[in-house]
Amino acid sequence: MFDRYPHRPQGALRQPDGSVHWQLWAPCHPRLQLVTWPNGQEVAVTMQPRDSGYHSHRQAEVSEGLRYAYRLPDQRTLPDPASRSQPGGVHAPSAVFSPQQYAWTDQEWRGIPRDQLVIYELHVGTFTPEGTLEAIIPRLPELRALGVTAIELMPLAQFAGERNWGYDGAYPFAVQNSYGGPRALQRLVDQAHREQIAVFLDVVYNHLGPEGNYSGVFGPYFTDRYHTPWGSAINVDGPDSEPVRQFLIDNACMWVRDFHVDGLRLDAVHAIYDFGARHVLADLQSAVQAEARRQGRSVQVIAESNQNDVRLIDPPPSGGYGLDGVWNDDFHHSVRALLAGEQEGYYRDFGQALHLVKAFNDVFVYDGCYSPFRRRNHGNRVADRDRSAFVVCIHNHDQIGNRAWGDRPLTYLPPAACRLACGLLMLSPCIPLLFMGEEYGERRPFPFFCSFGDAELVQSVREGRRAEFAALEFQWGEELPDPQDPATFASARLSWDWPAGTPAGQMRRLYADLLEARRNWPALRDRRATRARLTGHDDANPPPLLVIERGEARTCRAWANLTAQPQPCTLEKRDGERLLLSTEQTCYGGARTLDSLPDLLEPYELILLGQGDQHP
Fold first, then answer.
1. CB of 566 within 8 A of CB of 601?
2. Topology of 522-611 in CATH?
3. Where do the domains of the chain lie?
4. Of 88, 74, 70, 73, whose CA–CA distance to 215 is shortest?
5. Could you read off the pLDDT of 48-107 as tens digits, one per residue?
6. I need a surface site. Which of 21, 70, 458, 528 has the fewest CB within 10 A?
7. Residue 267: active-site member
């Protein structure tokens, strides 16, 4: 009576003897048929019912790529919810895929330590003209030269059509067919490891996409006890939830085992509702780390959350989930609200220089204090927790793509302000995340796009976007991009161009130089000691200058002019200290030379000083 729910991995799984074992959890149906199409001829066999609602079938001599589906008693024939490959899209039969048939060459790879991570987020479909996983491979050396140590792929789970951000995936185990499918992902990861670049994958465990999602036909994968902004919540704590929990955990382990990924970015974990005694994220992390140990590699599991909650990274004995890291959006919001004057929505909580100071000193700006936007206290304190457990950015897909036109900062901020933002990011003791193209000041937008086949769903998406941004559309007199239009998707493709001496080339050099400084300067490698303050604080006249000191001995100091006007620089050099860098140097697109400490800081200028014997 105290037996655990049986763990039966789902999907069409190739066995050591070469046979394929199909297994499906479908407690809604007492009988199911497995339908295959060898040589184009349909063959249907009744699957063997197992305990707890599982159905299985084992067969020898199954060819790779064999199409198959499950036939319900009402004669509907549907793809496998745990399909590893959907060559024909979300409504077509699944295909047998055997990950063990790939010959890996990364046996010596051990991963990237967390405190050395520089993450580069990219969207496969718009990163290259080809829009495929394999097309990323030739660009890896450029990313490595920039200083990137990990790429983070926006979700790859099979979605409807060929164009999508990826958060509408309907088959969590299948790699998007238009990106090249699962074998292409294996090749990309293998080549990335040759370049000493880790690969992170963005995974979505809070909902499944609205089109092609047949999981609920087979069993109670979803619950109406909770709701998410994107659809029905996943059932991880209700009746019959154990197989659903295991479905997600098996998926996370699959990416590590079969595709050698080095990390997972868990999308919006605040929308994973689990009120059981042990949260599904804690179980997932435990299983992933056990798999990582078997692989002999380090694997980082990092959560995206808007809760400012350190329990996500605290160890289970302390009441936490034990994850390796968590996103800190407060840093982004502090920089953007201050420089761009944003005050809509959650930006109401930001916009003062003191918010930026707190982001440097305490990580979370809202760490238990009152949030005007939420009208309640929000978050908890980071205290002395390792700063490399927090991911910060000044751009990401959400903060660009969720704007009405998906416009990038250089289209509405002065170049000097964008250079200042780069400097602030690189001085943070937390893990920096770059969004593709920001390193050279990409001006092409990243709007929301999709390619659904359901006409009603397409219209609903269009109307939803129009309703969300109706005021802006009226204010600017410009029609919003149509998410379904292929031209909207095409507009997001990177230019991937930074000729020497151009603003793009100068911006990229700034990013490369600051990433090199983070890598080599002892004070910037020290995650323990960061102190930020404002000069000459006066409540009536907010101070324009931010001072940041890095390192236990404060051997690296930065002064940043946070305003659009020149400001006196009253900073005095210490013995042995020299001016190391200015974001307004001529090589970065400004007018500054490093002859001596300036009397005036230019608008949005950030300067770095350090001991000459400790900094190159």
1. yes
2. Immunoglobulin-like (2.60.40)
3. 11-78, 329-393, 522-611
4. 70
5. 999 999 999 999 999 999 999 999 999 999 999 999 999 999 999 999 999 999 999 999
6. 528
7. yes
